[in-house]
Amino acid sequence: MEADENPPDIRSTSALKNQDLNFLQLNVAVILADYGWYLLCLCIGVYVVLQHLQKKRPRQDQSATPGEVPGPKDPVSVVRRQEAMEAARKKMQEELDAKAALFLERQQELEEEKRQQKIEKWESMKEGKSFKGNSRVTQNSDEAGSSTVLKPKSDKKSLRSTGYNPLSGAGGGSCAWRPGRRGPSAGG
Questions:
Q1: Terminus-to-terminus CA distance in the chain, angstroms?
Q2: Is residue 59 over pLDDT 70?
Q3: Angstrom distances, CA of residue 35 to CA of 9, 21, 32, 165
Q4: Cα separation of 172 and 101, whole Å?
Q5: pLDDT number for residue 134
């Protein structure tokens, strides 16, 4: 009985502890061998998500000025900010209205100019003159007063011979278009 009552040997307890660690080491090695790539991808995914969330969090806090406690804001500062926004909106609206008025004025001027041209054309037609010829004469008289005079090009070279007619089907084209056969089959 004395042998049973003796305390356990130090060597045997250290052997048991090492045996437990070896068992744990073997299990971890097996798990990593089977699922290592999955665990690596999972860790990378968690890291990326955490980085994204950390970037997003400061954006939400930037709306408050530093040193200001989040929560209920001072009503006076809220009113000031709203008044400033309203003033900016009014200024932008006035600029837009001014641009619209200027655009409308330009459109009316263009319409008036077109109307005057139509009147001149009608009067020249009544007199039996060509409108284009009349406008050229007025343009030439205006240009005579200026230092440089532009002359119309008289030596234009035509691209095709004068006898070419694309609707005749002869004289210029190498092939003619013909409609295809009607019916379900063209071959037979």
A1: 114
A2: no
A3: 39, 21, 5, 81
A4: 56
A5: 47
| Nearest alpha-carbon partner for 138 in 112, 122, 156, 117 | 117
The Cα 2–Cα 58 span in angstroms is 71
pLDDT at residue 18 is higher than 70 = no
**Three-class HEC string of 120-176:** HHHHHHHHCCCHHHHHHHHHHHHHHHCCCCCCCCCCCCCCCCCCCCCCCCCCCCCCC
Report the predicted TM-score, pTM, of the whole model to 2 decimal places: 0.31
- At residue 45, the pLDDT reads 97
* Structure token digits, residue 17: 């502890």
Q: How far is CA 33 from CA 25, 28, 36, 61, 73, in A?
A: 12, 8, 6, 44, 57
How many Cβ atoms are within 10 Å of 143's Cβ, its own excluded?
A: 13
- Dist CA 140 CA 149 (whole Å): 8
> What mean pLDDT comes out for the span 88-108?
97
